[in-house]
Amino acid sequence: MSLTVSSCIRCGTTVFPARYLCPVCGGAEWSEIEAARGTVTALTVVRHRVGAHNSGGVHLASVAMQAGPTVIACLKSVAEKGDAVCLALDEQHRIVASRS
Ligand SMILES: [Zn+2]
Fold first, then answer.
1. Which Pfam families match (predicted)?
2. How far, in Å, CA of 74 to CA of 97, rounded?
3. What is the pLDDT, as a whole number, of residue 96?
4. pLDDT at 48 over 80
């Protein structure tokens, strides 16, 4: 599933997740744009998650999307700060990133 962000029709501001009103101009009309690519800006590992049985922890990355907003994504493959990644939604609608 591809990931999309909302782009304000009036001023072009991109937001994620979607909002009712644009935080910049107050506009309420949006167009959906695909946001498949981004760059890793920070990495973190979440360990000791309640109910998680894998001891390796969950690798999360802050990804600055080319479309504008920054999102937190689950890393499917090893990545480092500055790496270009592809973004998608998995079947549980979580954002996942893999090295492109
Ligand atoms: Zn706007």
1. zf-ChsH2
2. 6
3. 95
4. no
Please name each of the domains of the chain with its CATH number. 4-99 (2.40.50)
pLDDT at residue 76 greater than cutoff 80: yes
Ligand 1 centre distance from Cα of residue 31 (Å): 11
What separation in Å is there between the alpha carbon of 19 and the centre of ligand 1?
11
How many whole angstroms from 21 Cα to the centroid of ligand 1? 8
Segment 25-37 mean pLDDT = 95
> Can you point out the beta strands (E) in 3-94?
4-8, 14-15, 30-34, 37-46, 58-65, 70-75, 84-89
**Is the per-residue pLDDT at 49 higher than 90?**
no
Q: State both tokens at 23.
A: 């935080």
